[in-house]
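Example 468.
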Amino acid sequence: MSVAPVTRFAPSPSGELHLGNVRTALFNWLLARRDAGCFVLRIEDTDAARSRPEHVAQLLEDLRWLGLDWDHGPGAGGPAAPYEQSRRGSLYADALGRLEVAGQVFACYCTPLEIELGRKAQVAAGRPPRYAGTCRELTDGQRAAHQAAGRRPSLRFRVPAGRELAFDDLVHGPQRFRSDDIGDFVVRRADGSASFFFSNALDDGLMGVTHVLRGEDHLSNTPRQLLLLEALGLPAPRYGHLALLVGEGGAPLSKRDGALSVRELRAQGYLPAAILNLLFRLGHSSPLQGLLDPAALARGFDTGHLGRAPAKLDPVQLAGWQREAVQALAADEAAAWLAPAMPAGLDPSQRAEFTAAVRANVLLPRDAALWCDVVFGEPPPPDAAAQAILREAGAAFFAAAAAASEHHARDWPALVAAVKAATGRKGPALFKPLRCALTGLDHGPELAPLLRLMPDGKARERLSRYAH
Ligand code: GLU
Ligand code: ZN
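Predicted structure in complex with zinc ion:
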């Protein structure tokens, strides 16, 4: 019987959440939700200079907005609280103390320059550029001399010699590393803070994490973290290293791609369902078609379908999912979504009718501005296509249409019937010129609801413009 998985998302809150991070969060969330497991949110905010409280608050809000809820983490509590690494210093000190007692770490007094020279010496000797082991076997006297000289030591993990470190990556398959290629690495910096390798691995162990899906850039950290977990007597999670998400030019996405931050997308009116459905299929192949709700995404998630090739973020695909997500909104949700684009002073039924009329023609609320102008303000001047159609229909046609609109201004079928009777035109030769005069465009949403919403006299005034 398999145990319910515990997964986690462990962001470093140094900027806005972008789509690459969101995909990592999503995949871990899906894995937990699929198997009735537990999803942990851990804030890796040990870099005091770069982590800001407002970034953390924003991150939590973005995840909530996306619907990626966490069982344990900030605001939710949990058995391994606190979930902010900046508040876990004493746990790190305790664990480091245990490693010290066990002789698995040693104080390193090397300066950055000495370390660099040591690395160069290794390379010159044909070995990997690892820490040279300078301070591994210092005598008490040597240590005292360094201390007396005012040097503050970092703490390094004593990597055992001659070990083979193997693990089965969920994405990349069997991996093998030789411990002899891994230099003794820093677990506590000279300023007393725990290193990323250390706090990240220890916390996964303490939080009972069973599966870690994270960026490929962490693959080479894994053997070190496995050694640490072993030394700490903690179970190791299974790791899966996700292929990079790349931008249009094939370059890695970065937080600098402001347009791709969740904040930005949300502000523009992109919907969570669009973002989640897009990311579900980036680096994860799925036979499932169409817009899926989060529960269906979870049922369809399969770590066996995670790809190794970089996945490309395509704005056209994002637009496609957004289109589906907009269509899937309930009527009241759609009206709320479009509200920022609608003129103030519409009553709820007008809002509902306007929303129903234009939602198939808008991807983002700002696209509705055009249809607001058409209905409540001034339509755009006719473009070339519309002008040709208006000219072809001619002044007499519009004189008849303007006259018909006197009685049927709000009733599109009746207006069309009256113009048809008066002019003998039918089909596109009848509809198109009417549409062009009323909206300035030869395409767009259904006219019946737009006409019902237009203020008195507007339709007639527009039709009359082309009557002479
Ligand atoms: N804080 C790390 C990052 O954002 C976490 C890496 C991991 O998931 O283990 O890259
Ligand atoms: Zn040293």
